[in-house]
Design brief:
The structure holds 2 protein chains of 2 kinds. Chain A has 3 helices and 5 strands, in the order H-E-E-H-E-E-E-H. Chain A has helices at 4-12, 39-60, 106-121; strands at 17-24, 29-34, 71-74, 78-85, 93-100. The longest helix of chain A is centred in the middle third of the chain and has 22 residues, at 39-60. By secondary structure, chain A is α+β, with helices and mostly antiparallel strands. The mean pLDDT of chain A is 92. In chain A, a hairpin with a 7-residue loop joins strand 4 (78-85) and strand 5. Chain B has a 4-stranded antiparallel β-sheet with strand order 3-2-1-4. The chains are: A alpha+beta, B alpha+beta. Chains A and B meet through helix 2 and helix 3 of A and helix 2, helix 5, helix 6 and helix 9 of B.
Chain lengths: 123, 272
């Protein structure tokens, strides 16, 4: 069983990880961060991006009861992985990791990220 | 209520002082809540207006009130009730930390609004849950200010904050996009419960609920211009047919959520 700080350490141990941040999506607050220059700004941006993604996908898709597993954004130099975790009374909490596009294995990183988030909420 | 403007230092000044002294103990704020400090850092805040960890856990169905009372007694003074709950499998360590963090920020938002209340510091006093997350005082005050600004961005009027939530019978457009919390709010809204009251009923943080209500208002889904909760309806509650343009809806100066009003409304509702 892990806590919030361990969860960030584990995210940072994913090969190619450059930075990791935990964001409270409802309030747009940075809960904790590693390797992120301005966590406050990053949290606001990632939270807005996640919300826009949800709204966009919900509008574009026929799927009912839509649930996002993760969001992947690829830039010239990095991957951004955003993984939502439903908490019991509020949320979601977003675990976001930035990975070096040269060094990271995207499929592996997704699996690792899922394992970390499962561990955080497992009792 | 022990409000004596000018006779006591403002709450944030007081907290900043305690942080500098690296104080450990509890700071009781009027009758509205308590801030717990450990070596100058805030470990927990509770506020009468917002659901605490006990309410959030109860609302999630993980443990009932009796279970919490037991854990609390067993932990005893200075104990670690949180660790006890984790060892019983009620929730994970990550969930406990997030629960404490979330309840603390929620309470701080309402309790630490700029105002002056009589305070009393009890050195060495600790919360029954133990210590599971820390906030430094400047960071906590900054976060409260950021949340206030976030509310203003969502819908720049405090008009609906303390009023009963009243959804429109018909929505203005052809479809509406709702979050899970907004859905729950619309279902639970009975035209008598205020946002804070609904938060308690649904087991959600009061701030998230307030934000969801303001977003519903911005989407034009709530009735505006209702009568004051204790006043006479001055207009048939037909609601505005059109959305009020945003800039026109800013009668608020500094627009701080009126906590005293929220508390009065809560007291009135509880007295029913």
């Amino acid at each position: 069983m892990i806590g919030i700080e361990d969860c960030l350490s584990e995210a940072m141990s994913i090969p190619g990880a450059l930075g990791a941040i935990l964001v409270d999506h409802t309030s747009g607050m940075a809960v904790a961060a590693r390797g992120i220059a301005d966590p406050g700004r990053a949290a606001a941006g990632l939270s807005a991006a996640y919300r826009a993604t949800l709204d966009g996908v919900a509008t574009a898709s026929e799927e009912t009861g839509l649930r996002v597993e993760d969001v992947i954004v690829t830039t010239g130099t990095s991957y951004h992985l955003v993984r939502p975790m439903e908490m019991m009374f509020d949320g979601p909490l977003l675990l976001c990791v930035r990975l070096d596009v040269e060094r990271a294995n995207l499929a592996l990183a997704r699996l690792r990220l899922r394992a970390v988030t499962d561990e955080l909420v497992a009792s | 209520m022990g409000t004596r403007p000018g006779s006591a230092p403002a709450l944030d000044t007081m907290l900043t002082g305690l942080a500098q002294d690296e104080a450990t103990g509890s700071l009781r704020v009027g009758k509205e809540g308590t801030v717990y400090l450990v070596r100058g850092r805030v470990s927990y805040v509770d506020c009468a207006a917002t659901p605490g960890v006990e309410d959030l856990l109860g609302g999630s169905g993980r443990i009932d009130a009796a279970g919490i009372r037991h854990a609390r007694q067993e932990a005893g003074p200075g104990g670690d009730g949180g660790a006890l709950l984790v060892s019983r499998g009620v929730l994970s360590r990550g969930e406990l930390e997030f629960c404490v963090l979330s309840a603390t920020l929620d309470a701080a938002f309402f309790l630490l609004a700029p105002r002056t209340l009589r305070t009393r510091f009890r050195a060495g006093d600790a919360h029954w849950l133990g210590v599971h997350w820390f906030f430094d005082v400047p960071g906590l005050l900054r976060e409260c200010a950021r949340r206030r600004a976030r509310l203003e961005r969502a819908w720049p009027s405090a008009e609906l904050d303390a009023r009963p939530v009243t959804p429109l019978r018909r929505i203005p457009g052809t479809h509406a996009l709702l979050t899970r919390l907004q859905w729950e709010l619309l279902l639970a809204a009975d035209s008598t419960a205020t946002p804070v009251e609904l938060a308690r009923r649904l087991g959600h943080p009061a701030y998230s609920t307030l934000l969801a209500v303001r977003e519903l208002a911005a989407a034009g889904l709530l009735a505006m211009n209702q009568a004051e909760p204790d006043g006479q309806p001055d207009e048939p509650p037909a609601a505005l047919p059109r959305r009020v343009p945003r800039p026109a809806a800013v009668p608020v100066a500094g627009a701080v959520t009126d906590v005293n009003l929220l508390l009065r409304v809560r007291d009135a509702l509880e007295a029913l």
